[in-house]
Amino acid sequence: MTLEKLKTEISACRICGNFLPHGPNPVFRANEKSRILLVGQAPGTRVHNTRIPWNDPSGDRLRGWLGLSREEFYNEENISIIPMGFCYPGKGKSGDLPPRAECAPAWHGKLLKFLPNLRLTLLIGQYSQKYYLGKRRKENLTETVRNFKEYLPDFFPLPHPSPRNTFWLQKHPWFETEVVPALKERCQEIWEEG
Ligand code: SF4
Q1: Which of 33, 69, 134, 135 is the most exposed place for a label (fewest CB within 10 A)?
Q2: Does ligand 1 lie within 6 Å of residue 48's CB atom?
Q3: What structural domains does the chain harbor?
Q4: How large a percentage of the chain has pLDDT more than 70?
């Protein structure tokens, strides 16, 4: 198996296709040279339609947190992007449905074997934190993010940068004053290490 073959296999995945209102359309990026892995939730409609991950206001805010231009962000040699669910899960009563639970167990482990240069995994939102941190999480996402230093150097937990979370960001100003600068600094160190 090669990474290219695995990516082709994932692109043809139909494991939970019967539950996806818009059908399977896996959106992810993986490159052996990537030094940062970004694990988000699942594509929204705009990402589903464009097949470009984080190509929405959430992505704009995330790039601001990381201090990266679109060009740097979308350079696969910098960042691989594998959400907890690779396909758009559809809408629920209050926004998009959660990522399909079948997806990460089916594909993440296989992909990670081809990403030997990772120095840092950004865990964006509760689903990736639950999957990767398990019992190491705090009682809620706010406390997990507040204690981000406990998970370094491997993981950096973050809230979802969605405009829907603007209230959370306003309520927790320490995120912008303490966590975002630490995130930018860690990313900068990784780029400089080469
Ligand atoms: S969400 Fe994941 S498991 Fe489901 S069809 Fe898409 S790639 Fe396959």
Answers
A1: 135
A2: no
A3: 3-193 (3.40.470.10)
A4: 100
